[in-house]
Amino acid sequence: MTDSQTPRPGPWDQKPGPAAPAREAAAADRGPPRSAEPPLDKGQHPVWAIVSTLLLGGLIFWWSQSWIMVVAILFGLLVHEYGHVLAMNAYGMGPARIYIVPFLGGMAKAQRLAESEWHGVLVSLAGPAFGLLAAIPFFGLYIVTGDGMWLQGVFYIAMLNLLNLAPAPPLDGSKALGPVLALIHPMVEKVAMVVVGAVAVLWGLSNGNWPFAAFLALALFGHLRRGHWRPEGRRLTTVEAGRSVGLFVLTAAACFGVALAGLMPLAGSFEQALAGGVSYFEFGR
Q1: Residue 138 vs residues 33, 63, 127, 156, 222: alpha-carbon distances, Å
Q2: Could you tell me which of 80, 133, 131, 67 has the C-alpha nearest to residue 106?
Q3: Which of 28, 61, 236, 254 is deepest in the core (most CB within 10 A)?
Q4: Which of 60-64, 194-198, 223-227 has the lowest mean pLDDT?
């Protein structure tokens, strides 16, 4: 077994036994290792996490003048990122941590890379799928109080997860569909990501959603500068590619379904709720 085939020890693996020093001495004679396990990520400092959350919430309120949007987005963001964390830990990438980025949003950071692109797809879709659970308390508050503002929170949470499925870096959709497009040709993935990213930025600007547009533009620019598109690990098989597309479609349909469920009591009918949901994605609305 070559060095590249030997799995790296992780932070949760069993500690080496007494024979470890001898093996390490022998390895030292052969020269430095090709790669070393990165230091364990201790996560975001609680004080900075609170400050970052307040800054993000303040920006949302300044832009929307809606406290229900602030509560829904912040709570939905936390549940969304926790979905990524659960999937990362389940597939040996943990212990994963959640970071709140001031003014921009949040992210889940793994300790190790995914073993395969299939695991990467599942991790990327776990955020939007699990994130829909954040709508449950808002549905409950609407049932108890009868106040339609809680349904607005449901809609915001659904849109937060649905927009994350846009196949543009660094959104979850790019990690779910990117490997599928790369099977056709790597250039197909690159072109698709850039085109969709540019369209999403223009959509945000045309609708006055400049925080989303600015975040996506900065992220896309940084991604292009790095020039690194494909993650390490085993590539998708044809069967896994089909499953990836199917799970992506199901997750997107679930997000749109939750959005419609939040709109229907406010709109009065399914047709009006559907029209309102579709109009959200129009340019210059």
Answers
A1: 52, 22, 19, 11, 36
A2: 80
A3: 236
A4: 223-227
Alpha helix (H) ranges present in the chain? 20-29, 46-64, 67-90, 117-131, 135-145, 149-163, 172-184, 186-206, 210-226, 238-267, 270-279
- Domain of 205, in residue numbers: 41-279
The two structure tokens encoding residue 194:
């850039």
Token pair listed for 25: 């001495």
Amino acid at 256: F
Q: For the chain, what is the domain count?
A: 1
Would 26 be classed as within a structural domain?
no
Neighbours of 222 (CB within 10 A): 11
Q: Are the CB atoms for 112 and 10 separated by under 8 Å?
A: yes
Whether residue 32 lies inside any domain: the answer is: no
In a domain, 21, yes or no: no
Q: What is the pLDDT of residue 7?
A: 45
CB-CB contact of 93 with 41 (8 Å): no
Distance CA 188, CA 191 (A): 5
Instruction: Please give the structure tokens belonging to residue 106.
Output: 């949040």
In a domain, 251, yes or no: yes
